[in-house]
Amino acid sequence: MLRFSSTVLRFALTLAVTFLGLLLVTFLIGRVVPIDPVLAAVGDRAPPEVYERVRIELGLDLPLWQQFLLYIEAVLQGDFGTSVLTSRPVLEDIGRVFPATLELATVATLIGVVLGIPMGVAGAVWQGRWPDHLVRVLGLVGYSVPVFWLGLMGLLLFYAKLGWVEGPGRLDVFYEDLVTPVTGVILLDSAMAGEWDVFWNAFGHVILPAAILGYFSLAYIARMTRSLMLEQLRQEYITTARVKGVPEWRIVWRHALGNCAVPLITVVALSYGGLLEGSVLTETVFAWPGLGAYLTSSLLNADMNAVLGATICVGTVFIGLNFLSDLLYRLLDPRARA
After folding, report:
1. How far is residue 307's CA from residue 30's CA, in Å, rounded to a whole number?
2. 61 and 117, same structural domain?
């Protein structure tokens, strides 16, 4: 019991230090960038007395270490300030746009996992043959082709020419406000409400940008799965299983892939986190009203409260995913529990 308590305490301390480091980085970014937060709030035509009053209200007259402590206190209370662009609290804005990014990244990750892991396994099993070459070529293209170009070509082909998918945005205008938001994820909310017309319209909108993002996730997951499987297939326990006459499919999918499950958790978690933060260009191309589009518009309008709030949100997601990965490690690998 004592050992378990010390492990939990050490892990909680690690999370706290990591989060504190994230806050320190965002705080320094807000002070280093050549943007005056007072001018962003009052405008460049405000009289000097108004400028000075707002400067004092924001605590910018205090020493840097006091400003940092006030910053930590505000963030822990969920106060990221007010967005200059929308005139609403930044946390409210993030709560409005983040479900769209979460929906897009989740569907993309599912595509990457469902297709990427079998492709990586096939590349390892048939190393040096055409399935392996195909997996490596697809991975190379996935790493090389710019995402905005792939998105534009996808819209041109599958939406404009073939009409297989819906256009930019999350929903057609006709279906907006037909479902009461519960989670903010339209696919989930419409399914819970039984509004299947809305569900399929939302699916038609999300599938193309999710497939574009999922292709990049697929390339990464397939490549890492192939490397991990090649390492496992060279181990002595695989040779022993073959000598004993264990079926090849069982060796590959049960033994080799089973031993790859733990490191694959990290691969999938990092891929998921990367999609949550790296969907800026995709959201811009597809007019997807998510965190990436919100962050882009905030940067273009020098809205630093919104920029830093979105950065903290993404960093917190990464910390949470690492925490979840560690928990799954301990569930799947007895050596980690020991």
Report:
1. 9
2. no
Residue 245: phi, psi to the nearest 5? 85, 20
Torsion sign across C-alpha atoms 304, 305, 311, 315: positive
Q: How far apart are CA 301 and CA 230, in angstroms?
A: 49
In a domain, residue 85? The reply is no
Backbone angles phi, psi at 89, to 5 degrees: -55, 140
pLDDT at position 213 over 80: yes
Quote the pLDDT of residue 108.
Answer: 92
pTM (2 decimals)? 0.83
Q: Are residues 229 and 274 in the same domain?
A: yes
Q: Is pLDDT at 2 greater than 60 in this prediction?
A: no
Q: How many domains does the chain have?
A: 2
What is the domain extent for residue 59?
A: 18-76
Q: Do 221 and 117 form a contact (C-beta atoms < 8 A)?
A: yes
Are 70 and 154 members of one domain? no
CA 122 to chain centre: 27
Task: Quick: pLDDT tens for 107-118.
Answer: 999 999 999 999
Do 153 and 284 belong together in one domain?
Answer: yes
Q: How far is CA 60 from CA 31, 69, 74, 245, in A?
A: 10, 12, 14, 73
- The pLDDT score that the predictor gives to residue 169 is 86
Burial class of residue 220, CB neighbours in 10 A (0-12, 13-18, 19+): buried
- Mean pLDDT computed over every residue of the chain: 83
247 and 119 housed in the same domain: yes
Rounded average pLDDT over 11-38: 77
In this structure, the answer to whether residues 65 and 171 fall within a common structural domain is: no
Q: Does 106 lie in the same domain as 28?
A: no
**What confidence score (pLDDT) does residue 5 get?**
64
311 in the same domain as 200:
yes
**What local confidence, expressed as pLDDT, does residue 333 receive?**
63
Cα separations (Å) of 207 from 7, 110, 155, 170? Answer: 42, 11, 11, 10
84 located within any domain: no
